[in-house]
Specification:
The structure is a single chain. The longest helix has 19 residues. About 5% of the residues have low confidence. The chain is about 50% helix and about 5% strand. The chain is mainly α. It has 11 helices and 7 strands. The relative contact order is 0.16. It has one domain: Cytochrome Bc1 Complex, Chain D, domain 2.
Length: about 290
């Protein structure tokens, strides 16, 4: 019987998780990241997220859509078909759309222009399953996440270096910074309330300080990451969405201006650290 991608991942992680819990109890002085470091190292060579990368590669080169075309000529900012280093330089401004786009946003553009999908088809066939599978603890893989993981992995070993050259890029960065610090929603919270205060926890999980370049570098360099709690790969859009959802704000549209803005702001912080991208990362939860 053919196993699901989540089942494959569980076969890899199950025994290792039990062994770690039995053999390495944490100490009171260790941070959550330090406690998880040994487990992350154990899975480094057998990261379940690699299934998503491999399947994303197959999807990228597979012909599909009304035009029966692949995504091989998609331009991620470095020229049609150039994947190496593209994710490291995103989000960025694209003249052909007049927008600052995330990797996922750009993939959606290429699906429309190269493969011929209509906006309605994108919504129903790509985004609908993508949003559904973004539910916590849902181990079902979706194609947009697979594609994102594959393209992002082609920047492994490189630091984030998104451009801030055009007026549009500077505006979106300023919007991201404003959004990060603005208190919003029914909970009257900002992103900074959780991610600008050292030592803050929620549900027993230590929260990363995303205004600290070293922390931002480690966190962003891991996404798309395999999240153990969900048995699924999650992209940075999902990370932003979960925070906004906790603030009781409306659903964050993939590839939207606010999505790009929050990602740019945090990518610029990550850039300061020079931390190399390493995808897929491994997170206990995200």
């Amino acid at each position: 019987m053919k196993r699901s991608i989540a089942a494959k991942a569980l076969l890899v992680t199950g025994g290792l998780a039990l062994g770690l819990l039995v053999s390495r109890p944490g100490t009171a002085t260790e941070t959550d990241d330090q406690k998880f470091a040994a487990y992350r190292n154990m899975l480094e060579q057998d990261n379940p997220g690699q299934f998503w990368v491999d399947e994303g590669k197959a999807l990228f080169y597979k012909k599909g859509g009304p035009k029966n075309a692949s995504l091989e000529q998609c331009d991620f900012g470095l020229g049609p078909g150039v994947l190496k280093g593209a994710y490291a330089h995103m989000p960025r401004y694209f003249k052909d759309t007049g927008q600052v786009q995330t990797l996922e946003g750009r993939l959606l553009t290429c699906m429309e222009r190269l493969q011929g999908y209509t906006p309605k088809q994108i919504q129903e066939e790509v985004l609908k399953p993508h949003y559904t599978n973004a539910d916590e603890e849902n181990g079902t893989a979706d194609n947009l996440t697979r594609l994102t993981a594959f393209v992002a992995a082609q920047s492994n070993g490189m630091p984030f270096d998104p451009p801030l050259n055009t007026p549009q890029e500077k505006y979106v960065y300023a919007l991201g910074k404003y959004t990060f610090f603005r208190r919003m929603g029914k909970m009257d919270l900002s992103c900074a309330d959780c991610h600008n205060v050292p030592g803050r926890t929620i549900r027993g999980v230590e929260l990363p300080v995303m205004t600290d370049p070293q922390t931002a570098g480690r966190v962003m360099a891991a996404f798309p990451a395999y999240v153990l709690k969900d048995s699924n790969v999650r992209t940075f859009w999902w990370r932003n969405e979960r925070c906004l959802l906790a603030m009781r704000l409306p659903w964050l549209m993939t590839g939207s201006e606010v999505d790009a803005a929050l990602t740019v702001f945090q990518a610029i912080e990550a850039k300061k650290s020079g931390h190399p991208i390493k995808i897929p990362g491994i997170k206990p939860r995200a």
